[in-house]
Amino acid sequence: QVYAVVYKVPVDSILYVGIAMTFWNIVNNFVAGTLQDKETLHWLFPKEKFGRRAPWIITTTPVGMAIVFVLWYPPSVDPDFLLIWFTVAVFFINFVISTLLIAGNAGVAELYPFKEERLRIDLWALMWSLFVGFFLL
Fold it and tell me: What are the Cα distances from residue 69, in Å, to 75, 104, 105?
């Protein structure tokens, strides 16, 4: 809404970016999962010390924070530039979120190989989410 109301970027253009990101997310999840499974960060983070998923959480969290920051503080207020800025930022934010979700979910599956253990972890996560959500409302 900030881009449409404050920066006067056309709403229909933002809508088209959102639709494009929906289709990009199909490819994006495959790319993020494949990169993690092939352990492409093993040269920087040894698997023996960090595992397969932790390097992705370690690297994409600060990158995602930086991208969210630059999304809300663009260098120009020209509507045409802002549409490109918004598109690129959301493109990378989508990749970061997919990477974090895949790494987190796959990490739980690797740490807890039995279904009963994963169900117990999911129950605790659900309960804490509801608890925190109740106090945030």
Answer: 12, 23, 26
Residue with tokens 């020209």: 78
Contact 95, 28 (CB under 8 A): yes
CA 116 remoteness from chain centre = 28
CA 83 to chain centre: 20
87-122 pLDDT, tens digit per residue, is 999 999 999 999 999 998 888 888 888 989 989 988
Q: Which two tokens stand for residue 114?
A: 């039995």
Using alpha carbons only, give the angle 24, 26, 28 rounded to the nearest 5 degrees.
65
8 A C-beta contact, residue 45 and residue 55? yes
Residue with tokens 């991208």: 67
Report yes or no on whether pTM surpasses 0.85: no
